[in-house]
Amino acid sequence: MFNRNSVFVLDTNKTPCDPTHPAKARKLLSEGKAAVFRKYPFTIILKEESKPTKKYRIKIDPGAKTTGLALLSDTNIVFCAELEHRGFQISEALTKRKTLRSSRRNWKTRYRKPRFLNRKRPKGWLPPSLMSRVHNIKSWVDKLIKYAPVDSISMELVRFDTQKIVNPEIQGTEYQRGELFGYEVRQYLLEKFHHTCVYCGTKETALNLDHFHPKSRGGSDKVSNLVLSCVDCNQAKSNKLPEDFLSDRPKLLEIINKQRKQPLANATAVNATRWKLKEVLESTGLPVEVGSGGLTKYNRKRLGISKYHWTDAACVGVSTPDTLNIRNYQPLLIKAMGRGSRQMVKPDKYGFPRTAPKLRQKSFYGFQTGDIVKAVVTKGKKIGTYVGRIAVRKTGSFNIKTKTESVQGISYKYCKHLHKSDGYTYNFGELVKQKTINFVQKVEQVLDTPVQLNLFDISELTTKSKSKAKRIKRKKFDGLDGKQLSLF
Ligand SMILES: [Zn+2]
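Above: query sequence and zinc ion SMILES. Below: predicted holo structure tokens.
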């Protein structure tokens, strides 16, 4: 039941104490000195008063689909999680509603006429799909603050640090020559050229840094002289002057020249959602440290850590320690599920009612859709034990979605609550084994590009790591040695 994350501990007054090792928590529970307070994240409550001794920092790497979360104390990762957002589901549902309503208004019916366009959006408004991401993260930050003595927050705010690219002088010579500068520039170029080869427009491929005016012909290392190019174009161009290489495409030459000299301010990767998130996090009253994506990547490389959402989170900001151990960690996978639909009747494609109205009642026999239960079925065809998320029905015959299967028709009589619905569903990610770490580092070394583990089947990786590595290399990255940029 325990993952390798630490267990959160509350004292008898519900004040957060130092998170503890699962084994210690198990001992406290079996000796009757504590009780289970909450299943996800696993939290126990002591039967006496206690005080925290350490300080903890929440670190966040916000993403469009998945956000990485990590809780750090000194050089230890205490808790790690990956939070999956609902974003696209929300915008799809809203679009569907909008089309149905607007088509309905063209009929001669009792439905109301469209309102005159007199509504304004409040300042700082963001689309619901983006706002839901901010709310998901805020809700988890609030939870962590409730269960652990957190005193600071770090988040990744921008992909790259414009300040550092424009004025590398102010950062000192060490920085100018250093690797960090390279990471910021890479992130910047990826954003500026929209992850696309400037010569042929290819996307979704490994991209090289290209000196537009070749270095061998006196081109500078300045950012304005750097463009992105796919491997084929890069080889074709070789050390030709851009005027020669693009002699048959003068228009493209003009466009690239304009694009690469564009001032930085116009090509910033500042993302409205992240700014909003910063604002919301600051409302907790805790100091919020911000870092750039370039710095995160630099830290992760420096520490020799593989790429997961949660390891990226652990590497956010200058507060990142000099050593971090990720071995034997297993992230809690949190998926935002929503809390049911507001829609009373489901319409068919013409907008007519297709179903009976939704029941106003949400819970039946004490259970509600989204609860996580354990059902021990002792009679009938479905004898067995099932643990998972339930969908309730009025009849008392529920559906359970376990990790592997979806079981229908389980009576409420067999069900016991593990965790009440809170708008999320939970799972555990892959355990990070030393073997996996070694393998990923090897692949990254060979490819000179970060590898997102989730892209591959991890179970395959650990068993046939070597042959798989060769196959990946041949299949996807054949002949792509040299300075590559990550597209993952
Ligand atoms: Zn190309």
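The pocket of zinc ion is lined by residues 197, 199-200, 202, 229-230, 232-233 (CB under 6 Å).
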